[in-house]
Amino acid sequence: MIRIKYSFWLVLLFSLVLTACGSKKYTIKSNTKAAKAADAMSNLKSKQLYKFITEWTGVKYRFGGMDKRGIDCSGFALMLEKEIYGVTLPRISREQANVVKRKSIDNLKEGDLVFFSFGGKDVDHVGVYLNNGFFVHASTNRGVIVDDLSQPAYQRVLVKSGSVN
Q1: Does 121 map to a domain?
Q2: Per-residue pLDDT tens for 22-58?
Q3: Which family does the record assign (predicted)?
């Protein structure tokens, strides 16, 4: 009988330990850049866009590149717009900016384009707006990545935003 009592208490103690360990919740800090980018991706209306971005994320930057061995920003925007929205864009970011109807940042919608001038006056970089201030682009240093448009580095060089339609 004593042996059964000890077995009961041993099983109960073991069960409590297991359930205590299993109840610990792990959360991601929602204020981190990665969490915010993940949130922007999860809020995409187009599941095709989500799939396209995840398939290309991390592909390295290569000037003039148009495949997964390397891609540049205008090539990425061109391919995304064609595959997801059926829109044909010129190959060069400066020419892409010329076919876009200007919109304020506050009025951008998923799939709109954002243009930057890192090297002076002319447009020399393009990205595709997602939502909540995030965009996807082929970064020269980090490859295809979802980034925060509100970062000062982007705000200083943002020269145009808008839609093709």
Answers
A1: yes
A2: 444 444 456 788 888 888 898 899 999 999 999 999 9
A3: Belongs to the peptidase C40 family.
Please indicate, yes or no, if residue 15 is contained in any of the structural domains: no
User: Given 37, 53, 73, 145, which residue is catalytic?
Assistant: 73
pTM over 0.85: no
Total domain count for the chain?
Answer: 1
What does the pLDDT average to over 62-90?
Answer: 97
Residues with Cβ < 8 Å from 74, sequence gap 6 or more? 89, 91, 92, 93, 96, 126
Selecting among 137, 138, 143, 146, the annotated active-site residue is 137
By residue range, what is the domain housing residue 155? 30-163
Least confident segment among 20-24, 60-64, 71-75, 160-164: 20-24
How far apart, in whole angstroms, are the C-alpha atoms of residue 25 and residue 14? 20
Is residue 137 flagged as an active site residue? yes
CATH number at residue 85: 3.90.1720.10
What are the structure tokens assigned to 144, written together? 């295809």
